[in-house]
Amino acid sequence: MVWELTDDVEAFASTSDDFLRSRPVEHTVFLTLVDTLRRRGLHAYGSGAPIFGQWRTDDGAVDGVLLQTPPHPMMFSRLPGGAVAAALDALAGRSLPGVNMLVDDAATFVADWPAPAAAEKMRVRLYRLGELTPPSPPAGTARIAGPGDRDLLVRWFSEFAEAINDVAEESPGPVVDDRLAYGGITLWEVDGSPVSTAARSRPEAGMVRIQMVYTPTVHRGHGYGGAATSAASRAALDEGASEVVLFTDLSNPTSNGLYQRLGYRPVLDRVVMEFSS
Question: The dihedral of CA 265, 105, 164, 25: what is its sign?
């Protein structure tokens, strides 16, 4: 059993596709990252070169993957026994800003990674939608965002990244443009003015992920975020998604409670660890 590392997204996609699509809910981020890198180029998430890895069993099957788009932490799938320790050897000498792993795997990796210090940045929970239960509708209506909303959305996406302390691109413009191109952003508006938004990913293996749910501070407390999320989830289902998923920050009880009321159910927990240089 061995890790195979590559900087070739096409090679990685061709050999890991069956593994990733075998559990599209669990592998939601890997599927959307690979799709984006293939469509928008290797520097879609930053100037650094991505790295991809596969854990091969003795019979050659893929049973685990890793992926990093610098400057973001390296993300690992669920790993079988022995793969975490082997990853430490395979990545020796590389400079990592951090890792994004299942909680138990992260504890093992961080204990032996040669960084001066490691700090927990965030714990997140993956949810999948059971039966969508829309909230009591607040004032307003949902609509799909269009090109005329671009400037507002660029500002909101920047505010969202700052709010969650995420490593953002210099400008979220390309991200907004990409989602506008396929109608992937829902707005909730009141009296013709947008007050909240929820984006959704392109479908991959029947899976769609709700992303970047954001309500500016001035509009919070009215149920607009829940309404936008519900509308975006319904749009994904209406377009044929068999699975709709989302992540929440476990330190935010408001969002975790909201999404469960909408019909989302827990799947797994991940932790993002940051390494000091």
Answer: negative
Q: What is the pLDDT of residue 167?
A: 63
Average pLDDT for 97-102? 96
Q: Which residues of 160-195 are buried (b: 16+ CB within 10 A; e: fewer)?
A: bbeeeeeebbeebeebbebbbeeebbbbbbeeeebb
Sheet with 62-68: list strands edge to edge.
Answer: 2-6, 51-56, 62-68, 74-76, 98-102, 264-275, 118-129, 243-249, 207-214, 193-200, 185-190, 141-144
Is it true that the peptide bond before 194 is cis, omega within 30 degrees of 0?
A: no
The pTM (predicted TM-score) of the whole model is: 0.94
Phi first, then psi: give them for residue 203, nearest 5 degrees: -65, 135
45's tokens: 């998430």
Q: Percent of the chain at pLDDT above 70?
A: 98
According to the model, what pLDDT value does residue 269 have? 97
The yes-or-no verdict on residue 169 having pLDDT over 60 is no
- Enumerate long-range contacts of 78-86, CB under 8 Å, 24 or more apart: 78/26, 78/102, 78/105, 78/268, 79/55, 79/105, 80/55, 82/1, 83/1, 83/3, 83/55, 84/108, 84/109, 85/112, 86/1, 86/2, 86/3, 86/55
pLDDT digits (tens, 9 = 90+) for 182-234: 999 999 999 999 999 999 999 999 999 999 999 999 999 999 999 999 999 99
Tell me the three state secondary structure of residue 96.
coil
- Domain residues of the chain, as ranges? 2-114, 128-269
The single-letter code of the amino acid at 213 is V
The CATH number assigned to the domain with range 128-269 reads 3.40.630.30
DSSP string, 119-143: EEEEEEEEEEESS--PPPP-SSEEE
